């Protein structure tokens, strides 16, 4: 590999910063199908908490009419996202933004859709509230806020694996854990719940739509 090729793949530091998340490889295709029915055909999608960047690459490649804006508060994650992006060469994939869902203001003014995968249960509740606040500020009427991950639901038995996962998360950090979907919906001021899509491995894709201002 000549220096130019190495720089293109590994960046200025010459180190491969790409991260790999096994869950991303498992859920990306079912999630893509759910997104096809939720996202607009064109416009800008902000992905909050993009992690390794593998989802961003997959979705940007499959949905070329959309401009994909990944983000993450973690510097290493952003380096991974940008390393994957350099390798892909996708013209509709932007560089990762430093964005903390719980913080404000966010480093962009508008989006046509927002996606957040597997963040809400691995973050304090303040991150969920910040995500909803940011989505209210950035999205126009009818625009989707799409959430993916495991949830607790009233009247629906929780899978044993999800209960064990919840206990594991709370053992790591008492502020983490699976959220009650009804509590998230109640906090989603300015949004209406469009639909909930059952996903593999006891996960859900939850689609909210921004309501017109009253």
Automatic annotation (TrEMBL):
What protein name does the entry list?
A: DUF938 domain-containing protein
Q: Which domain of life is it from?
A: Bacteria
Tell me which InterPro entries the record gives: DUF938, SAM-dependent_MTases_sf
């Amino acid at each position: 590999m000549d220096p130019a090729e190495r720089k293109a793949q590994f960046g200025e530091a010459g180190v491969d910063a790409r991260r790999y998340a096994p869950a991303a490889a498992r859920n990306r295709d079912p999630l893509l199908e759910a997104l096809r029915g939720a996202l607009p055909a064109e416009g800008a999608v902000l992905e909050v908490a993009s992690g390794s960047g593998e989802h961003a690459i997959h979705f940007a490649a499959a949905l070329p009419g959309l401009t994909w804006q990944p983000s993450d508060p973690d510097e290493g994650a952003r380096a991974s996202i940008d390393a994957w992006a350099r390798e892909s060469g996708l013209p509709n994939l932007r560089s990762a933004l430093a964005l903390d869902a719980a913080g404000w203001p966010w480093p962009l003014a508008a989006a046509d859709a927002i996606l957040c995968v597997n963040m809400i249960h691995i973050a304090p509740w303040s991150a969920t509230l910040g995500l909803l606040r940011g989505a209210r500020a950035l999205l126009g009427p009818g625009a989707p806020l799409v959430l993916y991950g495991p949830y607790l639901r009233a009247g629906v038995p929780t899978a044993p694996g999800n209960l064990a996962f919840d206990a594991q998360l709370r053992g790591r950090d008492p502020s983490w854990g699976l959220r009650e979907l009804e509590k998230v919906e109640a906090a989603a001021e300015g949004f209406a719940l469009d639909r909930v899509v059952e996903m593999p491995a006891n996960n859900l894709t939850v689609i909210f739509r921004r309501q017109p201002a009253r």
